[in-house]
Amino acid sequence: MATKIRLARFGSKKRAFYRMVVADGRFSRDGRYIEVLGQYDPKLGIANANIKADRVKHWLACGAQPTDTARDIIRKIVPNQ
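Above: the chain's sequence. Below: its structure in token form.
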């Protein structure tokens, strides 16, 4: 099972917010996931993202591959990643 750290879209039309989740790479963007790692609201910016740094480090150590957007958020939130 190839796990990915990615953003799942929530919210209503034109008022989107995202959850950073760990999911199997075969599932759809908003489909089934393994664990929620935090939330990100693009209107508030990356500085206000609520991400569990210890769980992100755990999943990266287990071999989960972040998507490009998730990688950018992780680099700004989680130190030494």
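The mean pLDDT is 90.
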